[in-house]
From TrEMBL:
This is Endonuclease III. Its cofactor is [4Fe-4S] cluster. One of its GO terms (biological process) is base-excision repair, AP site formation. It catalyses: 2'-deoxyribonucleotide-(2'-deoxyribose 5'-phosphate)-2'-deoxyribonucleotide-DNA = a 3'-end 2'-deoxyribonucleotide-(2,3-dehydro-2,3-deoxyribose 5'-phosphate)-DNA + a 5'-end 5'-phospho-2'-deoxyribonucleoside-DNA + H(+). Belongs to the Nth/MutY family. Its EC number is 4.2.99.18. [4Fe-4S] cluster binds at C188, C195, C198, C204. The lineage of its organism: Bacteria, Bacillati, Bacillota, Bacilli, Bacillales. DNA repair enzyme that has both DNA N-glycosylase activity and AP-lyase activity. The DNA N-glycosylase activity releases various damaged pyrimidines from DNA by cleaving the N-glycosidic bond, leaving an AP (apurinic/apyrimidinic) site. The AP-lyase activity cleaves the phosphodiester bond 3' to the AP site by a beta-elimination, leaving a 3'-terminal unsaturated sugar and a product with a terminal 5'-phosphate. It comes from Paenibacillus hemerocallicola.
Amino acid sequence: MTTKKTRHILDTIAELFPDAHCELHHSNPFELTIAVLLSAQCTDETVNKVTADLFRKYKSPDDYLSVPLEELEQDIRRIGLFRNKAKNIQSLCRILLERYDGQVPERHEQLVELPGVGRKTANVVVSNAFGIPAIAVDTHVERVSKRLGMAGPDDSVLQVEQKLMKQVPRDEWTQTHHRLIFFGRYHCKAQNPQCEACPLLDQCKEGKERMKTPKKRKSIK
């Protein structure tokens, strides 16, 4: 059920970031799956720099399997955990060819069985590639949801997702996911959030405490 508080939060964030969208560059479900896999513990900006060349070289699952693992590792070495991710990419591509005729499956339960694809990645793919409403909880969504009281401070990622799904209308799940990310990435940052200019400060216990704490002045020597 969408409460008055939740509606206020959703509408306010919508006004701040009406055009929030997936910032990972891709042109099809397969590229999106690879990009999201690479984005684990890595910024979208870095992923986009790497995939600019990667997606020119590799167009299909067959392409990723046509090179030695070491070559793929070198192609993505700027990405954190690149060795493990290269291994997962080739394993994923092998499964796509063996089970799905080289195509990324649309069903969530099939996606999470792919190497390197967790619940968050699957939610991003089904919502952005196939138009199925979903809320993917990344570090930004989790932080913002907890700060604004839409989830408990000790909730797991799955619990945050479940609570958001109950509070947000289903037809707004995907857009809310993007807007919460933008709000967390560009406004309610982990460090130095813009509390003094936040229209949702009244909903944020942490923000209120931050504003009460006077900033330390640098001593002049």
